[in-house]
Amino acid sequence: MRVATLSTALLAALPLASAELDKWAKKAGLKYFGAATDSPGQRERAGYEAVYPQYDEIMWESGEFHQTTPTNGMKWLFTEPQRGVYNFTEGEIVASRANAERYVLRCHALVWHSQLAPWVTATNWTKDELKTIIHDHITNVMGHWKGRCYAWDVVNEALNEDGTYRSSVFYDTLGEDFIKYAFQVAHETDPNAKLYYNDYNLEYPGAKVSGAARIVSMLQNAGIHIDGVGLQSHLTAEGHPTIDQHIDAISTFTRLGVEVALTELDVRLTLPATPALLAKQSQGYKNIVGACAQVKGCIGVTIWDFYDPFSWVPATFAGQGLPLLWYANFTKHPAYYGVLAALKNATGACSKTHKRSIPLLD
Ligand code: 9MR
User: Fold this and answer.
1) Which residues make beta-bridge pairs with 155?
2) What range(s) does the GH10 domain occupy (predicted)?
3) Residues enclosing ligand 1, CB less than 6 A?
4) Between the N and C ends of the chain, which has fewer C-beta atoms within 10 Å?
């Protein structure tokens, strides 16, 4: 009896004992390592209900993560589907669990041209009307979660690849003032939340990084509060940047005095997976996590879900997939150990300097 009790206890302790990501992220000087997750009804692939207990165990109980972001539930489409009609149900599913588990909560996303409620683009608004709409959306949505979000992605994906502004109802009506206005209202609504500009393809130097840096400076020069830049980090195994490119890009922002977070990390590959591709994927993860862990001011890493079947990738990129750290059968990718190696390499007295100070193989 006694032996049986002991072994049950040991078994129960196993997942905790093997949980490494958040633990090593903190040893490397980061605030958190986390995974985005969706409310069950919105998960990418239906028919996976049977795995939810195992999924939830890793997401919430394993100790691997201490941060999350709702992948969909806080977006305009869900939170204000009709003008003035607010619905926090989907976002609240993830937010309340995150708060109960004392996870760091990143909240996503207030002003974005995509997953926008159709009514917002259905009318040619005057400038003043659209400002009122932005104001009401931010004050209600951010106000609902006030005090519960470590950070908010205030403006998401406002840039084209060449660093110019993307055409959207917001930019086409208000010009770059829509960004200023959104950040102003956000700071008034929840002065304690960190306010982020969030975009993809900001992980290596180039025109888009310059565009995002221009946004940061524009806000700072206008005396408007901005705290951070989110590097979404949707990367590919076949063509990922080097660690030095990542360090350059991250440092562009930290030099401006704002923090950086990797907000939606995944590294997709072309199917079928081969050992060589999985090794490249692992290197891709290792480079970006290593860069974040080594630059002072890069404060945390969020992977965009952790479980391959719930990734957005297969539905968006034909023939590509397996972008996360856990396979469908809940075994781990080699990239899990790549992430771990990057975090372990970054621990120690000399880490978190602006320059790479300890060797990390590319
Ligand atoms: O993961 C999200 C997926 O479930 C949605 O179908 C998709 C719709 O565009 O949005 C995904 O998340 C996006 C995030 O909100 C912003 N950056 C790009 C992400 C991948 O599309």
Assistant:
1) 111, 197
2) 49-342
3) 44, 71-72, 114-115, 232, 264, 312
4) N
